[in-house]
Amino acid sequence: MASFSQFGKNMKRRASDAERNVDKVIREVALIADRELVLQTPVDTGRARSNWIVTIGRPSTEVISPYSPGSKGSSGSENANAAIAQGSLVIAQRRSGEDISISNNVPYIGLLNQGSSAQAPAQFVQAAVQRAVAAVRKARVL
After folding, report:
1. Domain-by-domain residue ranges, the chain?
2. What is the pLDDT of residues 32-45, one digit of tens each?
3. Whose CA is closest to 104, among 56, 30, 47?
4. Which of 15, 17, 83, 121 is the most buried (most CB within 10 A)?
């Protein structure tokens, strides 16, 4: 028969395991959302794709230059790789309980999301978030 002391230790261990698993799921979902947002963003100069910026705590308010400037989509994969790498680095540094923000502040991101580019369907941002939510639903926390 287990003692109350042993029971308490087991419960603390399970709580710690659960917290680690939840943190792992949060990071995985953020990685999926970031990757989906970046890859679904239409490319002309690479500016919009480069500006998916992941931060811990507060959302970014900055607009950056393309990681690899180009024209007519010529730098799409370079900008995607750099933006995803930036996000992955930040997400890996997240501590338990910290919020992850993924933002894009180019003035025309809303127009792109409304379907102004033939390269991406309207509402591609919402679709990316839905794919991340679906990943949460599939995740096994315990």
Report:
1. 15-138
2. 999 999 999 999 98
3. 47
4. 83
